[in-house]
Amino acid sequence: MQWILYILSLLWIGVGSCIILYTQQSRVFMKKALHGVDPGLISILPITIGALLIVSAYYSAAFWTIVILGLLAIGKGGLFIFNPGKAADRMIAWFLDEASDNMYRFAGIIAIILGTALLSWI
């Protein structure tokens, strides 16, 4: 199960780096990939990642931290499934249309930090 943590951490580091280095191209790619997609369909990804984090947390040095990250990811997936007050639709629309390049870079930095921390906890 450690390999799941390795894959997720390297994926977070890679995606974060791409978002920072290629901000405009990342924005265009995300618009094409997410625009008009049902939030219920999008929720599959965070729920899967959260479940994988929880299952593989036993094999890490920071068990509770990884479990909390997994629960947060599952909560995010739940928000996208139930979509109370069209909150998920508004978040997606804001991130795709109104967020600045600096916000994308900040999201990339957060992804790199999470990936590096996860890699160091294995």
What does this molecule look like?
The protein has helices at residues 2-21, 23-34, 39-42, 44-56, 63-82, 87-98, 101-121. The chain has 122 residues and is mostly helical. The protein has one domain (2-121). Helix 1 (2-21) runs antiparallel to helix 7 (101-121). It starts with a helix and ends with a helix. The mean pLDDT is 90.
Structural topology:
Blueprint: H1 2-21, H2 23-34, H3 39-42, H4 44-56, H5 63-82, H6 87-98, H7 101-121
Looking at this protein, list some descriptive labels.
single chain, 122 residues, mainly alpha, 84% helix
Quick description:
This protein is an all-alpha fold. It has seven helices and no strands.
Count of domains: 1
Largest sheet: none
Say how many strands there are.
0
Which term fits the overall shape? Answer: globular
Q: Can you write the helix and strand succession as a string? A: HHHHHHH
Summed over residues and divided by their number, the pLDDT gives a mean of: 90
Rg from alpha-carbon coordinates = 15 Å
Query: How many angstroms separate the termini?
Result: 10 Å
Helix amount: over 70%
Poorly predicted spans: none
Number of helices: 7
